[in-house]
Amino acid sequence: MTAASSALATVYYSKAEALKLAFAEDVGVEVLSLFPTPEQVTEIERLAKVKLDSNLISLHVGKKQGQIVGYALIESHTVRTQPETLLLVLNPDGRLRNVYTLAFHEPTEYQPPERWFALLTNRSLEDLSFDKEVQAVAGATLSSRAALNSARKLVAIFEVLLKPAKP
């Protein structure tokens, strides 16, 4: 990273601060390491319409009194030429609850506003698309697309690996 680009880098939250955003103070957090089979990877990628970067998925699971209160994924990806790190939080039923920007290293004008991230919450996997209700952010198309891909990926991971089977 050059001196000019490092001046643009903004880190908003540390990992510990991020997990406090995801879950209340009185919620215990465990790391769940998932190793999907090749068939599960194929299904996640089909649903998410995006490739998995790794066959190891580390989710943070919030639990209170033995009950799951949510899942969180910290994901870093390159937007244009620099990284962005997001915290994506699911409700126990797999609906997207929150998306937070933890770090953004592109120029700030390329960053979607928090109100745009709020548009992603409680949407089905099919509705997490620019073809539906969600619009790209003018001037931040690449970062909004990357965030949307991350949201779809997490919801697809839940659908394939975590969603309880119907009896």
From TrEMBL:
Could you mention a single GO BP entry for this protein? electron transport chain
Establish whether keyword Acetylation is in the entry. Answer: no
Residues annotated as domain FMN-binding: 85-154
Query: What is the official name of this protein in its record?
Result: FMN-binding protein
Which keywords has UniProt assigned to this entry?
Electron transport, Flavoprotein, FMN, Phosphoprotein, Transport
Q: Mind listing the GO molecular function terms for this protein?
A: electron transfer activity; FMN binding
GO CC, sorted alphabetically, is:
plasma membrane
PANTHER family per record:
ION-TRANSLOCATING OXIDOREDUCTASE COMPLEX SUBUNIT G (PTHR36118:SF1)
